[in-house]
Every structure is written in structure tokens, then in C-alpha cells.
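[Discussion] Sanity-checking designs against the backbone

I'm trying to build intuition for which residues belong where. Below is a C-alpha cell string of 447 positions. I'd appreciate it if someone posts a full sequence so I can compare it with mine line by line.
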């Protein structure tokens, strides 16, 4: 009897917890939908270009191709046809890597010298994605990366293998080579950006290891790594090559550390910071996993890390133990980073893509004692997704053109309005002042 009585008395508690969870989930969904409606109403004021596509199978990874073409429609109006690769992730359907083309205004190309800067009518009438090519992919495409030098691209599978595809082979519908080493799936993948080492590929995985691959022109059906690194104690989430030293790269892990490696040495990482992400304002000394890392394109010693503490840390190799700056703006773990000139893109589980203006680093961190504090480096917030951001990419040539994909199945091509306009205004004012000074000098000399 007592056992029955006890179970009867305890039964309402779990049911109450389930009701609380359901209510919290419903409230969160309502909040997401309400924020999306607000963003949709204000989006005409926020963007120079915004195209949103609902994919049948959600994309997990996107990467722009560098080449593009300037074409003309039936009305002899010029437009740009840009292309990117996207990899799908589905457990129920055949997965693919797709080459996709999208039409954008010619004014996005700084060197455009055509007769008309107007937006072509065909862009207004039809914004459909055009699937140019497809490759079959075994399982989900965790990550894909294009080698802009030799037109190969690599993908990470959900089984640990890395696959190589050849863009130059117009008839191929499958991969050319399988890179065998990792025993678990991963999301860290990057080609060396330096032309002298264009054949080097790095990968990292949930097996806590990093692999270096030397990809020559002749692709073998199966390949092994030329070197492996096991310096992390937990999942290695991401890696990034230095843009200035072709043998140096960074890695980040669930073990809360970032490491800097030099392939010229075999003695382990040259920098190993074990507590790179923690909240300095918290009494808790807990160190958070680090999810992503990216070297700057324009400043050789600068790189950024994003962690599960919802923050981004900016680091300088000249003083690697202390972050140069902490960027705060996301409300959930940061999962992706991408530099472009002096801007930094960040993506997060909070459904947001933020753009940071690193020219404002000297303005200092915001005062968190104020309820409405905003980081002065925050230049733009993209709120067009209602699910976790999977990946974001800057176009390497076309000005401020961005593609983003998320778990909500939406793929969006967009360009923020007025990004960098304040610097153009400052330059114009300086030119006016210089012109005024010169004219005053001329006047004085004539007198």
C-alpha cells in the first residue's frame, strides 16, 4: 500500500515539469515568430539586396565560388550571375552537393563600367535559385570547402571520411577520392589560402584529432594523411590557416583551449591557451567549449574565436595569453566566424548573424551595467532566420554580398544597406576640408 501511495503522490511532479517544458517551448516559438515578423516589416530599410529561398532539403554548409559572369537579359540590361556550392543534410533523402547560381545587380562589382547602374527587371520578377550542377553525396554534408586555386572542393561526411570532388570535370556526378583517417564525424575543414601551399588541406573531428592532407594534381581513389596531430584532449571543432605564414594554423576544442601550430616543428603547439573562453564578469570560473576560429585577412597576427559562452574573443599573436577584445551581442553559443577586410561575420545558435566593425575596437567594451548596452563594434544584425544558423559566407569579390543557411530550411542571399557608409562620408569631409584649405592657400597667394 505504501509503495502505491508514494507513486501516486509523486506522479503529478513529472507531469508538471513536462507542462512547464511545453509552455516554455511554445513561448520561445512565439517569441521567435514575433521577432521574425518585426524583421520582415523593417527589412526593406535594412538591405540593398535580400533574396530568401525555402529549400526542400536544408543546407548545412555554403561556400561562394570566386568567379562570376556579367550577362544581359532580353532587355539588354546587365546583371551578375554569381555561384556558390551548398551541401544538404537529410536522413530521409539522397544528399547532394549543389552548384547554385543567383542573379544580383551589377553595381555590386566595384570595377563595373557598364552603361546602366539600375537594377534589371529580371531580378525583380524572378529570384529563383538556379541549380547548375549536382553531385551525389553519401550521407549528410557536414562541411564543404572550395580550393579557389585548383578548382577542387572537399566535403566532410557524417561518418568521418573526407571526399574530394573536381569542378573541372564537367561530367562527374560523384567524388574522385576518399580521404581515410578520422573515426568520427567533424566540422573543421580548410584549404591553405596561400598559393605556395594550395595543395594542403586541414581537417578536424570529434575523434579529437587533426589531419594534414597533401593533395597533388593526381587524385588516388583512397588517400591517407601526411601528418596527424593529437594535442587536444577533446573534440576539435575548427581549424584556421594563417593568411601570412603558410605553415601556421590555429585549432579550437571542447577542451576550452585554443592552440597555434607550426608545421615546421614537431614538438607540439607553439601556443596553448587552456582557458580562452570564460565570462570575466561571472564569479563562476567555468571555461566554455570553443566552437570556431578564424584568422584575419588584413592583419597577419589577428584572429578570432567563438565559444559557448556566447562571446567572441579577438586575439593578437604578439600577446596570445590575453584577448585583445571581447565582443558581446549573441545570446547563445557562437558557431561560425568569417573575416572580410576589417569586418567580421559571426553566426550563432540564437538564429542571428552579426557583422562587427573591427575599426571600432579602440572604442572599448560596452558598459554592461546599463540595461540597453550595445557593443560599439556591432555594425549590423541579420534576423532573417528562425532556426540555428548553419553557415555564412562573404563573397570574395562582390562587395558585401553574403549567403546564409539555417536549420529552418531557408537559404538567404543578402547585402546590408549603408555598411561602411560612415567611412565614405568621413573621407568626403576630409577631401572637402583639404580642398577648402588648398583654395584658401591659392586665394592668399593671389592676394
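Best answer:
Here's mine. Compare freely.
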Amino acid at each position: 500500500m505504501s509503495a502505491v501511495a508514494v507513486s501516486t503522490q509523486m506522479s503529478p511532479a513529472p507531469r508538471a515539469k513536462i507542462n512547464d517544458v511545453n509552455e516554455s517551448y511554445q513561448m520561445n516559438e512565439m517569441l521567435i515568430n514575433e521577432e521574425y515578423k518585426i524583421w520582415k516589416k523593417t527589412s526593406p530599410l535594412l538591405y540593398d539586396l535580400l533574396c530568401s529561398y525555402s529549400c526542400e532539403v536544408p543546407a548545412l554548409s555554403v561556400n561562394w565560388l570566386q568567379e562570376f559572369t556579367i550577362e544581359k537579359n532580353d532587355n539588354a540590361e546587365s546583371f551578375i550571375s554569381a555561384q556558390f556550392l551548398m551541401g544538404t543534410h537529410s536522413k530521409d533523402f539522397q544528399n547532394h552537393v549543389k552548384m547554385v547560381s543567383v542573379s544580383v545587380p551589377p553595381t555590386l562589382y566595384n570595377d563595373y563600367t557598364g552603361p546602366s547602374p539600375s537594377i534589371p527587371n529580371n531580378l525583380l520578377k524572378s529570384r529563383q535559385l538556379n541549380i547548375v550542377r549536382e553531385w551525389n553525396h553519401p550521407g549528410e554534408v557536414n562541411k564543404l570547402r572550395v580550393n579557389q586555386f585548383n578548382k577542387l572542393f572537399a566535403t566532410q561526411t557524417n561518418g568521418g571520411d573526407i571526399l574530394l570532388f573536381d569542378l573541372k570535370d564537367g561530367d562527374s556526378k560523384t567524388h574522385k577520392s576518399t580521404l581515410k583517417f578520422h573515426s568520427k564525424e567533424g566540422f573543421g575543414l580548410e584549404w591553405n589560402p596561400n598559393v605556395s601551399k594550395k595543395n594542403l588541406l586541414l581537417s578536424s573531428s570529434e575523434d579529437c584529432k587533426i589531419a594534414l592532407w597533401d593533395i597533388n594534381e593526381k587524385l588516388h581513389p583512397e588517400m591517407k594523411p601526411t601528418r596527424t596531430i593529437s594535442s587536444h584532449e577533446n573534440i576539435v571543432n575548427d581549424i584556421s590557416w594563417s593568411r601570412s605564414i603558410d605553415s601556421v594554423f590555429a585549432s579550437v576544442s571542447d577542451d576550452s583551449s585554443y592552440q597555434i601550430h607550426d608545421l615546421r616543428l614537431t614538438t607540439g603547439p607553439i601556443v596553448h591557451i587552456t582557458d580562452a573562453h570564460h565570462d570575466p564578469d561571472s564569479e563562476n570560473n567555468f571555461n566554455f567549449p570553443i566552437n570556431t576560429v578564424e584568422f584575419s585577412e588584413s592583419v597577419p597576427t589577428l584572429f578570432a574565436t567563438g565559444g559557448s559562452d556566447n562571446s567572441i574573443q579577438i586575439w593578437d599573436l604578439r600577446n596570445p595569453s590575453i584577448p585583445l577584445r571581447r565582443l558581446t551581442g549573441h545570446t547563445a553559443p557562437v558557431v561560425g566566424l568569417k573575416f572580410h577586410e576589417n569586418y567580421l561575420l559571426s553566426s550563432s545558435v540564437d538564429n542571428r548573424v552579426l557583422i562587427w566593425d573591427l575599426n571600432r575596437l579602440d572604442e572599448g567594451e560596452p558598459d554592461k551595467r546599463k540595461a540597453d548596452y550595445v557593443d560599439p563594434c556591432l555594425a549590423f544584425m541579420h534576423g532573417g532566420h528562425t532556426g540555428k544558423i548553419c553557415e555564412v559566407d562573404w563573397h570574395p569579390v562582390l562587395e558585401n554580398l553574403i549567403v546564409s543557411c539555417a536549420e529552418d530550411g531557408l537559404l538567404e542571399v543578402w547585402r546590408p544597406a549603408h555598411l561602411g557608409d560612415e567611412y565614405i562620408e568621413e573621407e568626403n569631409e576630409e577631401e572637402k576640408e583639404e580642398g577648402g584649405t588648398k583654395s584658401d592657400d591659392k586665394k592668399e597667394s593671389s592676394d
